[in-house]
Amino acid sequence: MNGRNKKLVEKVLVAIGDKTFQRKGAGDMKYLGRICRLMLLMRMLQSGRCYSANELADELEVSRRTIFRDLAVLEATHIPYYFDEQRRGYRISKDFRFPMVEQPKSS
User: Fold this and answer.
1) Cα angle 80-85-90, degrees, rounded to a multiple of 5
2) All domains of the chain, ordered by start, with CATH?
3) Which of 3, 12, 33, 100 is most buried (most C-beta within 10 Å)?
């Protein structure tokens, strides 16, 4: 896992208070929750680079089957990823932007 992804994982897991992460360390991706992995997957696919299923699996330290399950989650949530036939890899449409999430106003 590259340094930029490790820092993102650390921030996300610290924000959600993941005790497993704090015990096991940042390098052990198998202890990540699915939400963190999906966030990393989306970030990778939005980077402009195309990734094969094998490259995604290697980077996220999961099986190819898990990558395909995660891609199915993206599809079910209407995140417009696609397979680029020419570049032989997956990516998210350049026009896609996540909607802003507003924090609820406290009374």
Assistant:
1) 40
2) 3-92 (1.10.10.10)
3) 12
How far is CA 24 from its chain centroid? 20
29-80 tens-digit pLDDT: 555 578 888 888 998 998 889 999 999 999 888 899 999 999 999 999 888 8
CB neighbours of residue 93 within 10 Å: 12
CA terminus-to-terminus distance, the chain: 42
The dihedral region occupied by 82, where left means phi > 0, alpha psi between -120 and 50, and beta the remainder, is beta
The per-residue pLDDT for range 9-30, each reduced to its tens digit, is 666 666 555 555 544 554 555 5
Residue 15, CB half-sphere, CA atoms under 13 Å: how many? Answer: 9
C-alpha 10/C-alpha 52 separation (Å) is 25
